[in-house]
Structure formats: structure tokens, C-alpha cells
Amino acid sequence: MVAPTVSTPDAVVIGMGPAGEEVAGRLADAGWDVVGIDERLVGGECPYWGCIPSKIMVRAGNLVGEAHRVPGSAGISRVQTDWRPVVRHVRGATDDWDDKVAVDRFTTRGGRFLRGSARLTGPNEVCVAADDDSGRETVLRPRRALVLAAGTRPAAPPVPGLAGTPYWTNRELVEAERLPGSLLVLGGGAIGLELGQAVQRFGCQVTVVEAQSRLLSREEPEAAELLMRVLTTEGLEIHTGAELVSVGYDGERFTASCRRGERLVAERLLVSAGRRADLERLGASTLGVPADARALPVDERMRVLGAPGVWAVGDITGKGAFTHMAMYQADVAVRGILGRGGRAAEYHAVPRVTFTDPEVGAVGLTEAQARTVGLPVRTAVADLAAGSRGFVHGAGSDGFVKLVAAGGVLVGATAAGPTGGEVLGLLTLAVQARVPLEELRSTVWAYPTFHRAVGEALTRI
After folding, report:
1. Angle in degrees, CA 232, 236, 242, rounded to 5
2. pLDDT tens per residue, range 391-450
3. Has domain 5-43+99-152+277-337 been given CATH number 3.50.50.60?
4. Where are the domains of the chain?
5. Under CATH, to which class is 351-458 assigned?
6. Which of 5, 14, 6, 4 is CA-nearest to residue 34?
7. Distance CA 300, CA 186 (A)
């Protein structure tokens, strides 16, 4: 048995996704001896299987959708879809799932990179098993900081029969060189709807199964109603309130059976039922974290509670599985580790966007969440097209703005429409800065723009 190599760097960062790479790189820039560890690709989910490649697919699907809107508005059009250019663009953007550029980006800043599986073996000790068959292990004992940024993995619900099938997650779909003729999507959240709509527009028949009573169950019900109407019009088959009781695979087709009687069949099955942090595999119990915890508990400076010298950033903290959240937390952590102070983390204005067509952008609390915490809620909804007549019309201009106010400021907002994610920017600022409603009402909104719907909603709240 090969004796482990022991090293005592200044800092160890487990997980080199967006947050981990940012922390490790900036500490290296500060002159620290930093070791970054990941068993997969440096850069994490976002550039290889998440944000970037999925948006290439979504953008391609949107082009197809827009071309279908030409008749009745600008003449005639004929659309013949081809998935091969999408595959080429995805492979180019991901460097064909090769992270050499990302690894070099980190090491040229002075960091050291280890590829392997990392596990906490003590309050201030990490054991890294090499990702080859050598049996080599490296023991790291950071002298100044340990940063946990191990992220999350796709979660599969405990449906009988599912585990034994070759189901897809977003990773397999993003890597697919050809689309199946039919796809069953388990989960009506952002990932399932974004990818489902995109591949439907390229000729794959998509069926969405959601156990909750509506799509996007964490967002406003108006958003669910809008997407249900748009997606079913495009040909997606959607089943909400559908609890699966079994999944089978005969070598050619998946069969999913629902408790209320539906029997759904497709060539492929995409599981998009959320993500989870594998804290047990990480060895988080050495920090006193309960075995059944879903996330690492952190304070406003990203320090893991009860674990001096340990920080956590990104999905693993349970504050939102978004790249922008990971980068925000990374900045807070770096400033804290280096003793530079600055503002602590706040989460009252976290933006999120579902990149369907139309997009659903939201920030802060929904109406239901605001009422649950006892706020004196006032709401208003305005049709998105009301402030943009003459600019767009017909299919492709559906949408709305919903504002949630309490105490004279916005505590939440939703912008659903062709540019919902962009309209969200001004709403995020308003919620973050707690801009008084009277100040917002005095704003002059350019006409004709989708932003004018914000001004229209403000007159009703």
C-alpha cells in the first residue's frame, strides 16, 4: 500500500465549480499556497452541463419558435430543424468536455490542482483519493482556511424501478448527439421545462410529469398558468398532480405509471427532479453536521457554524442553486478569509430566471411566501403587452409583471415574458435597495417597452 502524501498548504478548496474556482483563484492571487480539488471538471456544472450549453439549446429552440411566428406577422416561413449545429455549438462551448483551459487558468495564478475524490477525515484534514487506479492518496491539512464548495448532484425520486433504468439527467441530454423521438420529463421545474421546450421545437415529442399541482411550484401561480398555456399550445403534453408509482424499461422504451391511472411511454426519460448535496460522502459529520442535513449551515460571512476555519459557498449552502449566487457568496467568503470586511451576505433579493419562452424572472418573495411570514401584503399584476403595443403582438408577447409589496417597498416581483430575465434587473435593484414605492411610481418608463408594465403595476399597488 502506498503511503499517503501529506501537505500543509495555506488553504484547501473542495469543489472547483464557479464558487470554488473564484475563491481558490483569488486566494492564490493574494499569494496564498492554495490547493483546489475536484473529481470532475474545473468550472463545475454551469459551463459543461448547465447554464452555458443549456442556453445554447434554448436559444436554438427560440429561433425555431420565432420562425414559426412569421406567418400572420411578416409573411410566410418554412422551418426545417437540424439538431447537428446545436451539437457542434455545445461541443465548442464546452471544449468537448475538456477542462484543460480551466485548470491552466487556475494554476497560472499560482494554485495547485488535484483531481480526485475529497473527504473530510477530521476538523482540519482532507483526504484526496486519486481518480486513477494507482491507489494514491494525499492528505491535506490547511493552515489558514478550508473552503467547501462541493456543489450538488441531480436527485432522483425513490420511484420503484427507476434506479435500475438508464434514465438521463441534464448531463446526458446536453451531451446527446441525436434527439430521441420522444422524451418523458420527470419534473416540471426550470430545468425540465427549459430543456423540454427546446427539444420539442426540434421534433422530439415531450411529455412532462409533475407531482405538484402546478408547474414551477415555487413561483407565482400566474407564471405556471402562463407556461401551461404556452407549452401545451406548442404541443407538449403536461401532467400535473401526477404521482409516479413505477418506472420500467424494456430496452427500447420507458414506461411510467401514475397513481391516478396514466401510463406514459417514451424512448427516453429525463429526470429533472431537483438536486442534492452529498454531505455524507463529503464527510461533513466531522464538522458536527447532522447526517440528515440537506445543506451546510453558514453564517452571514459564509463560515460553517461550529467549525472554526471552515467556510462553505455555492449550492452546498442551500441558499439557491444559481451560478450568480455562488459567485456572490465566493466574494463574501474571500473578503472574510483575507480579513477585508465589507458587506455580509443578504438573501432578500435573490434573482432567478427560468429560460423558457416566455422567460419567467423572479426576485425575492412570492405572494404566498410573503403571507406565510406574516407580512402585510399588497400585490398588483399588469399585462406585459400593455406597455408595448405596436412593438409586439400575437404569440410571443404573452406575459405579465406581478409586484409584491409590504411596508412601502417591494419584497418580491415576477416578470414573465419574452425578456422576463432582463426586465427583472430593475426589479432586483428595487427589492435589494428597498426603494420606496413612491420613488418607483415617479419613474419615467420609456414607451413602448416591456418595462412599462412595471410602471402600470405600480399604479395598482
Report:
1. 90
2. 554 445 689 999 999 999 999 999 999 999 999 999 999 999 999 999 999 999 999 889
3. yes
4. 5-43+99-152+277-337, 170-273, 351-458
5. alpha beta
6. 14
7. 35
